[in-house]
Specification:
14 helices, alpha/beta, about 20% strand, single chain
């Protein structure tokens, strides 16, 4: 599986990245960063540190992307959930890896053009980088195999407004442009991530069964998720667990059979005080003009958790 990850590297992004790095069937062609949990620049720095932690190949390209949405301004980092550094204030050494000095749109286009219809882009943050690539390189839509994205909600409550999830609400215009692109899109949103709970005890028990080479990863996850659990307690009222957001989207790339998807025509509401970032899915027989999108509506949560923990 040829994968590009597009991340706003916070705590759960880092676990998704570690999962992908540990899967032998996955070839990571690059990691691009976008604003969201942290700035795009800080996200790229965090990616470098996580790649070092996993002893990943030095030749994995890292590219810094958009620092603001297509319209309006970024609201700033989400320190209450992800800490001041985006990694739950866990300390990782400064990396010697180099972030490529090239436009993220060119990197996405050139990489997918090298492997036409083979590359999956896994987006774990705002869709700004992808939307800008579609605008700059229209052939990108033909080259890419598909997009799997973490974001949105069909029927579960939103996590930043009553009806919207943070990634979609943070740049709804970009998300709508991607939805309208005709690319094969699978959405892994709050409908399934809120059903899949990563327990505090799972993280704490990593010390017991991690292989020696993974002890540093276990130490990092205990520190980062210690902070992340507290933030989710404040935001979502979680007690000793948290929703599995970004890692579940990564699992959907590798193990799509664990999910039930529904195909619906959908757009994103880009305006409004209450509905900005909302998925508007048309379930009528005579639908509005839109592209079909695959939405994850159910998941085998226990199997997904076993799959995640199998990397250790």
């Amino acid at each position: 599986m040829k994968i590009i990850l597009d991340v706003d590297c916070g705590v759960d992004d880092s676990l998704a990245l570690l999962y992908m790095l540990k899967k032998p069937e996955v070839e990571i062609l690059g990691v691009t960063s976008v604003f969201g949990n942290v700035s795009a620049q800080k996200s790229a720095d965090n990616v470098c540190r996580i790649l070092d932690l996993a002893d990943a190949p030095k030749d994995i390209p890292i590219v810094c992307g958009a620092e603001s949405p297509l319209e309006g301004q970024w609201d700033g980092p989400v320190a209450i959930i992800h800490g001041d550094n985006g990694l739950g204030n866990a300390r990782l050494p400064v990396s010697s890896r180099t972030v490529l000095d090239m436009p993220v749109e060119d990197f996405l286009y050139e990489t997918t053009a090298r492997y036409p219809e083979e590359v999956t882009v896994l987006t774990l943050g705002r869709l700004t980088n992808v939307a800008n690539t579609i605008e700059k390189h229209p052939d990108f839509k033909k080259n890419i195999k598909n997009i799997v994205m973490m974001g949105g909600t069909l029927s579960a409550p939103g996590n930043v407004t009553p009806v919207a999830e943070a990634n979609f609400e943070g740049d709804p215009l970009a998300c709508d442009k991607v939805f309208c692109s005709g690319i094969d899109i699978s959405v892994v949103g709050l409908d399934v991530t809120m059903q899949t709970r990563l327990k505090k005890s799972y993280i704490e028990s990593l010390w017991e069964y991690c292989r020696d080479q993974d002890k540093a990863i276990a130490e990092y996850l205990c520190a980062a998720f210690g902070y992340y659990f507290e933030g989710n307690h404040i935001q979502d009222g979680c007690i000793d667990d948290c929703p599995l957001h970004d890692p579940l989207a990564a699992i959907a790339v590798v193990k799509p059979e664990l999910f039930q998807f529904q195909l619906l025509k959908a757009r994103i509401e880009c305006n409004g005080d209450y509905c900005r970032g909302m998925i508007v899915a048309d379930k009528r027989n005579h639908t509005f003009e839109a592209e079909y999108i695959k939405f994850a509506i159910a998941v085998d949560a226990e199997a997904a958790l076993r799959e995640l923990l199998s990397i250790f």
